[in-house]
């Protein structure tokens, strides 16, 4: 069976960009495209950043790619190698400073003159109203205020281990490449897309980056308190941790009964939001501490509530379920030998007639593409929103009582903008006819229900494809569609536990840290969007109907995909220290004499040498010390720098170090509201059209970042501003499907549909 991207040639270029700081941005696009069948050549600098010394993440990220090294000290020669590869490529992904790329002639205009069908995707250095930033995740997070959006073990900002900006940039770059390729099949011409780490941060944090004029209690919980006080994560007798989740109906009550706890008078959500669960949590912590983790996993298995292990990065690759569903695969490394690395997070397969006629030309990007969104919560709706941002017409179907997240405004707003809303009772006798017409109308049908639910409600792939054989059918499951965990409910927090995100963020010897950002959910949406775009591209080339499969588990593991197994040993990237300040002397945050913090990222020997000159402290190493990749205490250089920086205010250090060429950035300390304001009110964000605002009924004005990337050269369509009311477009959509006024009235009268 032909792969969706078979025959495509992709060149992925990262010149002078360290893996520590931007690795997911510069490696993930090629990884995803290669897994979908493209031939990928990864071009990197022969001289590596000193931050990458001893960091082996690229061994996993570059599985199956052809790797080419260039001497980027000879900039003209390196640019010549890239330009030569671009002449025969379909997609060119470029990352690096302007002096290495644009000033050497590596621009879309110049490259497309030699190859008019070329799609160029640029990872640009980030820019805000305060000026440009290099491709270093830590500095972007510091400026954005992200480091104070983590509930750490001490007051003040905390180093962010999860590379949100790099992951978001890598995913949006991949979407940009595929959207431009889809359009190219219509026009015959290439185009360009661009994103950045700062854009990537906005791509993965829509749940916490929207501003609503009139806040609800749910908003207050997520904004002011950065999540519930009780994280439901407990240490067992062997020092290992488990993560609980009570999201399924009746799960909380079942757990209370199982643990011999008195029943709740007000229910799960009320106990969680009021803090009443904290006292219960103390008792649960004492109970879990009496037995080892394996006891609890066995004892609590098969219940309505969920109990999963909190693993460190890479440990999931040992798991039987992860291996069975293909998320752990062998890889022969030329130096390390046989490794186990993350397998494909998306699978796109031809499901119809492979000799089907190509799809006719449409409008700009996805204009003319019709998407049926049958998904819920946060992970599901993000994929159709990404498609809407590219011009697709999206119809969102939700129950007549409303989507479960309508009462949780931050989550609902994050994924529902720019869609038409149809309220339909899927259990009603007339639902099958409405769905059948929707299936026939659609180019894409996307859902994310638990395995088996779609079959019961009539929108499983077999039913959809019987009505429309050439549809692109996308199903985003929790744990995959097969394997021991397939039927289990899932959520963002459980995936953070399994993927190693909670453990890695915590720092050495600290309890796991839950990041209340929705980032795994949103990553799942972006990954599904990548698969859908690949399916649309294959279909437009005559591949017929396509099946797209992704999972929330795959999304979580993608965010930690630089970890791998060598034999049974886990090989990870840099580790956060116990003080939660960073990875080592050259990449961390420091507290200055005035109590303010600043971030320092010295990517090479020159920057470290300049740092030594400015600080003027005896005993600092002549060469940058490698970052921590194993359990270890503070580096001697860290202690020397901590002492030196404590002598003067942060502003003075930032000015002097910046003037000397050392990458530093003040850490913006902000509560959740100020963090949001720093993004949505940034003049550069506004000027570049990165922010949309609209009125959301009684909740008032809503301001949200638009999802990247930006595409050209023609103007890009965007999702319409506004979040639809319940059933706001029901009558409009039913009329579009051919239901006359009498039929529409009958559907409303018998409760099959709701809204106008």
UniProtKB/TrEMBL annotation:
Classification via Gene3D superfamilies? Crotonobetainyl-coa:carnitine coa-transferase, domain 1, formyl-coa transferase, domain 3
- Species this protein is from: Trujillonella endophytica
Q: Which GO terms describe its molecular function?
A: transferase activity
What UniProt keywords are attached to this protein's entry?
A: Transferase
Instruction: Quote the protein name from its UniProt record.
Output: Crotonobetainyl-CoA:carnitine CoA-transferase CaiB
């Amino acid at each position: 069976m032909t792969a969706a991207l078979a025959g495509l040639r992709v060149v992925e270029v990262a010149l002078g960009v360290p893996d520590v700081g931007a690795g997911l941005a510069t490696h993930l696009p090629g990884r995803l495209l290669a897994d979908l069948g493209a031939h990928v050549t990864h071009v990197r600098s022969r001289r590596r950043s000193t931050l990458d010394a001893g960091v082996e993440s690229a061994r996993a990220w570059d599985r199956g790619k052809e790797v080419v090294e260039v001497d980027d000290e000879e900039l003209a020669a390196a640019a010549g190698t890239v330009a030569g590869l671009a002449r025969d490529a379909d997609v060119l992904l470029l990352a690096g400073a302007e002096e290495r790329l644009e000033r050497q002639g590596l621009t879309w205009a110049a490259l497309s003159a030699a190859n008019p069908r070329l799609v160029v995707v640029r990872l640009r250095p980030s820019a805000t109203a305060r000026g440009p930033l290099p491709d270093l995740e830590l500095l972007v997070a510091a400026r954005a205020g992200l480091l104070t959006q983590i509930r750490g073990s001490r007051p003040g900002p905390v180093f962010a281990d999860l590379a949100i900006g790099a992951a978001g940039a890598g995913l949006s770059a991949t979407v940009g490449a595929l959207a431009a390729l889809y359009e190219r099949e219509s026009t015959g011409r290439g185009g360009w897309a661009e994103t950045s780490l700062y854009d990537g941060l906005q791509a993965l944090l829509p749940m916490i980056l929207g501003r609503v004029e009139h806040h609800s209690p749910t908003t207050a919980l997520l904004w002011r308190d950065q999540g519930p006080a009780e994280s439901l994560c407990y240490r067992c007798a062997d020092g290992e941790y488990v993560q609980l989740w009570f999201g399924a109906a009746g799960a909380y009550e079942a757990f209370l009964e199982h643990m011999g706890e008195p029943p709740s008078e007000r229910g799960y959500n009320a106990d969680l939001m009021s803090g009443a669960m904290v006292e219960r949590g103390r008792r649960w912590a004492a109970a879990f501490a009496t037995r080892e983790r394996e006891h609890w996993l066995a004892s609590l298995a098969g219940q309505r509530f969920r109990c999963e292990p909190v693993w460190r990065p890479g440990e999931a690759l040992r798991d039987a379920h992860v291996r069975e569903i293909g998320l752990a695969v062998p890889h022969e490394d030329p130096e390390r030998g046989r490794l186990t690395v993350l397998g494909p997070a998306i699978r796109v397969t031809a499901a119809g007639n492979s000799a089907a006629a190509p799809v006719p030309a449409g409008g700009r990007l996805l204009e003319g593409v019709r998407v049926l969104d049958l998904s819920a919560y946060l992970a599901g709706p993000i994929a159709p929103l990404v498609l809407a941002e590219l011009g697709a017409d999206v119809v969102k179907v939700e129950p007549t009582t409303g989507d479960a997240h309508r009462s949780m405004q931050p989550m609902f707003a994050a994924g529902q903008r720019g869609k038409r809303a149809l309220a339909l009772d899927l259990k009603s006798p007339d639902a099958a006819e409405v769905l059948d017409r929707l299936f026939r109308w659609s180019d894409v049908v996307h859902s994310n229900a638990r395995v088996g639910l779609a079959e019961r409600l009539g929108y499983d792939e077999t039913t959809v494809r019987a009505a429309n054989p050439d549809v692109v059918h996308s199903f985003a499951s929790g744990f995959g569609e097969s394997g021991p965990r397939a039927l289990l409910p899932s959520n963002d927090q459980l995936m953070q536990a399994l993927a190693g995100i909670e453990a890695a963020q915590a720092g050495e010897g600290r309890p796991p840290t839950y990041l209340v950002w929705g980032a795994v959910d949103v990553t799942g949406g972006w990954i599904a969007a990548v698969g859908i775009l690949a399916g649309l591209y294959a279909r437009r080339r005559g591949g017929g109907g396509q099946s797209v499969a992704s999972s929330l588990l795959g999304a979580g593991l993608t965010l930690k995909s630089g970890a791998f197994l060598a034999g049974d040993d886990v090989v990870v990237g840099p580790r956060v220290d116990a003080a939660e300040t960073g990875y080592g002397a050259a990449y961390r945050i420091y507290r200055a004499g005035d109590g303010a913090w600043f971030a320092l990222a010295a990517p090479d020997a020159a920057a470290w040498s300049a740092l030594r000159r400015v600080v003027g402290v005896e005993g600092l190493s002549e060469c940058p010390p490698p970052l921590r990749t194993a359990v270890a205490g503070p580096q001697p250089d860290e202690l020397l720098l901590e002492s030196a920086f404590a002598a003067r205010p942060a502003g003075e250090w930032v000015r002097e170090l910046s003037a000397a060429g050392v990458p530093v950035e003040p850490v913006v300390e902000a509560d959740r509201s100020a963090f949001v304001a720093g993004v949505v009110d940034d003049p550069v964000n506004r000027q570049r059209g990165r922010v949309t605002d609209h009125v959301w009924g009684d909740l008032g004005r809503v301001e949200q970042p638009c999802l990247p990337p930006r595409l050209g050269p023609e103007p890009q369509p965007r999702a319409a501003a506004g979040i639809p009311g319940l059933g706001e477009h029901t009558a409009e959509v039913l009329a579009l499907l051919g239901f006359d006024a009498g039929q529409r009235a009958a559907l409303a009268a018998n409760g099959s549909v709701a809204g106008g």
